[in-house]
Amino acid sequence: MKKLSTTQKLFNKCVRGLAKQGFARAGALKDYRFQCMGLDHEGRRCAVGQIVPKSELVPGDFAAPTGAAKWMGWDSWDSLTDLQAAHDAAATPESMRRRLKRFAKKYGLSIEGLPL
Predict the structure, then answer these.
(1) Are 28 and 35 in contact (CB under 8 A)?
(2) Domain tally, the chain
(3) pLDDT tens track for 10-38
(4) Residue 111 belongs to some domain of the structure
(5) 30 or 113, higher pLDDT
(6) How much is the average pLDDT of 40-61?
(7) Alpha helices in the chain, H assignment, sequence order
């Protein structure tokens, strides 16, 4: 069995977390570039918020994931912001699924076994 990269593992965790909330976008409580990294008013998390440890989440925390790529072991800042953009720009659950598939293709990640 091929060992998964850290980025693949985190992407899988993100997709599975988003699936649990029906691919519903976390709502922004304030006007910031990133949607809620913490928990929104309905308990949903954004794409990056799905891979941030629960112990680090704060309701309504909208801090942009400035050091997130490094401490999570994510391959690059650009891909992390693209992952977040797949969430933030999705108007519907189906749109989010399409965007996550395009993200995976762009960065050479597998979607096999994921609920996309």
Answers:
(1) yes
(2) 1
(3) 899 999 999 999 999 887 545 444 445 55
(4) no
(5) 113
(6) 71
(7) 6-20, 47-51, 68-72, 77-88, 93-106
On whether the CB atoms of residues 86 and 99 are closer than 8 A, the answer is: yes
Instruction: Say which amino acid occupies 51.
Output: I
Residue range of the domain that includes 87: 6-106
- Pairwise CA distance, residues 13 & 109, whole Å: 13
11-47 burial by CB neighbour count: b if 16+ within 10 A, else e? bbebbebbbebebebbebeeeeebbbbbbbeeebbbb
What are residue 52's phi and psi, to 5 degrees? -80, 130
What is the per-residue pLDDT across 51-68, written as a single tens digit (0 to 9) for each? Answer: 877 666 655 554 445 445
